[in-house]
Request: fold
Amino acid sequence: MSGNFHSFVQHAMGPNCAQCNRTLLDHPQYIPQNGTKMETFITKDSGERQHFSSGMVRDTTAGKRRWDLIASGPMMARWADLLTRGASKYDADNWMKANGKEEYDRFLESSYRHFMNWFYLRKFGIDFEPGEDHGAATFFNINGVEYVKGKLDDRSKP
Reply:
């Protein structure tokens, strides 16, 4: 944080800071760790309403992303297990330090290698690297590719 910007916690715990009566997003001296100012959010409204027996009324979920659906099946738990093992081997979110072409290429290569290992195991019963969860490792490395791609894309913007 820069300048005489007071406690992040005061702003994060808000609604408003006791010293300046502003929220974190509105504070002119707030610069997140990635160096870009946080965006301002809106509350979308489809114009349609869902009424509940309790009397509560909400906007409908039609056309909205269903994050809850990705938890169906075994892959989220397996990916979480892989990340947990990685966090004890390295540090939690160590992979998020990646920020260049070298790391991008490594994630890309690893995603393909793990995908092919997963594919051959499922299709032919051949496990070229026994003991690893190649499905979860494929998820991990694709996520890494996309994460670093986002950082590289941000650098190319004026």
